[in-house]
Amino acid sequence: MIPVHLLADAPAQLLPARELMAFTLAMHITLVPLGVALPFITLVMHHRGLRKPDPVALLLARRWSAVMAVQFAVGIITGTVLSFEFGLLWPGMMGRWGDVFGLGFGIEAWAFFLEAILIAIYLYGWRRLPPKTHFWLGVPLPLAALMGAFGIIAANSWMNTPRGFTLDGDGRPVDVTVQQAIFTPMFGPQYWHFVVAMFITAGYVVAGVYAVGWLRGRRDRYHRLGFTVPFTVAAILTPVQFVLGDNIARQVFLKQPIKFAALELVWETDTHVPEYLFGRLQEDGTVKGGIKIPLLDSILAGKSPDTKVTGLSSVPASDRPTATQATIAHWAFDIMALVGSALILLALWYAWCWWRHRDLPKSPWFFRCAAVSGVASVVTVECGWISTEVGRQPWIVYQNMRVSEAVTPTGASALWAVFGLVVVVYLLVFGSLLGVVLKMSGRWRLADAASGPGPAGAPADDPEADTPYGPRPEPAGAAPGDHRAPGSEQ
After folding, report:
1. Per-residue pLDDT tens for 37-90?
2. How far is it, in rounded angstroms, from Cα 269 to Cα 101?
3. Could you tell me the sign of the dihedral formed by the alpha carbons of 204, 253, 277, 293, in that order?
4. Which family does it belong to (predicted)?
5. Alpha carbon distance 483, 490 (integer Å)
6. Which long-range contacts (CB under 8 A, 24 or more apart) does 89-94 make?
């Protein structure tokens, strides 16, 4: 929430517009990791099931594909709402700059449509297509998901480092160069940092479900495999993300020095700048609370204590985040970095045990940590967007248009009413999503309890409970031998 006193000189409708956008984005971003990365993780499991062959792996892939479809259905709704909000809440930005950076939203929309078609084909293909044909028809799914991420990050990176245009005498963009508008200086660092974060988060979220089952005594191969594959994907990428995170921080230091100053609570431009872990920036530029580490900020920024770091006071107050906004961005940045560091330790613990014993760690504390790693990863994703967007204040287009200049003229009372309605609708939608997923999970547990996870004995009316390829279990009362051939069932 943004305190009202921060917006005293701003249009009255700015606060509800910001709150509405922040809420819908925060809700949508919880779905994005599974939307971007679950298709890949599912196909990894699918490939394992075909290569072995392994009916348990195929069963997991089948069930994950069902979750993927339900999640995507909600994600496409919340993503579409965000797209409309750009035009409805920020017409000043879209009216002036839409021709420059709007292609990113077009790419994302096409990716959504393509992914919807591919998910439908993939779901339909279970038991209806030859195994290898079905697998290869699913291979484009991760590519479509990456294309959607490409579109939205292209738009956001342009807002952070706008390029690809010149301004005419009225300050309007002309001579647009699409390639430069898409591939801005921040695009590469943002895109790879975002994509890897999505894969890490999805891996830990999925693995966390099976870690909970493991802690509850479900030590069968189904839970072992359901944990190991996604956790391995996340564990391999976690140290990679550490390098990418360091790189994007340096790029922010070079390309958006005032945002970097907000993230690190740097007030005066200087060398030998200390690093603050947490703490609160005061209006006079002092930092209250937190842990001060001498020289570290300059070293992190330029690998030397002599590195000069630009401070917030180097620009007028109207061109920088307020002290409260800087503190919000700083806390989000620190939480993201600390949780990321903890996940690296968890990944190293897993790697050490696998290297030494070719087995999962035996300690229940490892699985307790793994069980919460998914939630922790989602928190880091939320913090990443907070630090990116709040740290850019007061600019909606960095150094070209302020947020107050872009906001809709719609009255504040109407926006607050819409905000309340959206909160109610989103709670119902996300509650329904959670209810559906829990119902599916409960049904699968009942099927597994009756027969054990595997190809035989699952209920014949449960389409995700038996082996995806080959004849289904014979229904009660069916004539002996009344099975269809593998791949022929319609």
Report:
1. 999 999 999 999 998 888 899 999 999 999 999 988 898 888 888 888 888 899
2. 33
3. positive
4. Belongs to the cytochrome ubiquinol oxidase subunit 1 family.
5. 12
6. 89/17, 89/20, 89/21, 89/407, 89/408, 89/415, 90/17, 90/21, 90/396, 90/403, 90/406, 90/407, 90/408, 91/406, 91/408, 92/401, 92/405, 92/406, 92/407, 93/396, 93/397, 93/401, 93/406
